[in-house]
User: Fold this.
Amino acid sequence: MEHLVGNGILQEVESRRSVRGRPPRVLTISPQAGTVVAVDVDTTASPVAIADLSGRLIAQDTVSVRIDAAPSTSGNASAPRSWWTTT
Assistant:
């Protein structure tokens, strides 16, 4: 645990007093420890969201997706190719 606290992954929060014995040590994930990216890939548009580790939304956007154009495998990257075409 000390390693995670020392590296900023976990942080200690104020604990409630215990009735007996040693007071409890309450730990939580530090929001600054990293980010999470979520993408809902769909056939026409894909919502994208970025959040910190506490779940606070940092940014969001929706990316348009064209399913009728795919990367070319013929060496000509600018040539459109249908996802439904078989070669």
Remarks:
- Confidence is low (pLDDT under 50) at residues 79-87.
- The radius of gyration is 23 Å.
